Amino acid sequence: MSEYSDIKIEIQDNGFTTVGNIYSSDEIALILATIEQVDTSKPTFRKSTDLFAIRQFFKEIPETAKIIFNDNFKTLVRQLFGDDYFVVKSIYFDKPETSNWFVSYHQDLTISVNKKVEIENFGPWTVKQSQYAVQPPLDILKNIFTVRIHLDDTDENNGALKVIAKSHLKGIYRPETIDWKTEKETICKVQKGGLMIMKPLLLHSSSKTNNNKRRRVIHIEFSNAELPTRIQWAEKLEKATA
Question: What is the CATH T-level fold of the domain 2-223, as seen in this structure?
């Protein structure tokens, strides 16, 4: 139990942590083989020379859930987040070997919902690949946990996330105001089969690939918040951690 307590404290204090050996090589191979069999012509799929992504991943490839939510993963989620957390977003990212795709420092400030409705303290709104997203009140963002499952070894040479520890404690933190005299960048190296866990308000970025190695990640967000009655989470998976 102390192991989980230490991880939980690290997430609370620094906004992130990494955990290894959640999936075996066979489980990773099975996840990837399942993904490779899917029809990629749907609007929730993004395809370019620099990035392939699948939004609403569990909706598009539901058969992956039984592999991903193995005993190691379910125990970790229950111990760190509690029994009342459920999946609210899932995305698969594939950054190819020669990708020039990079992401500058930012916070994840939106949630995915089923429709656009004018509600007090919700906004601004965006639409991306037929998916509505909105910035909710800060309390909702603070209660979200993001888990990134690494399907490849990842370091600074193929797009491992760079983060600013403790930045999640500062509310909305505009990247143009980062004071590099006081802030410190950390590179989150993760081996294949491991996880990175982070808070969405943590400032994070990723660089271009320069070592000719792929970076494939499954990004899953968990929340325990109920939304106003006129909107719903676009992707809600409650039974996966049972």
Answer: Jelly Rolls (2.60.120)
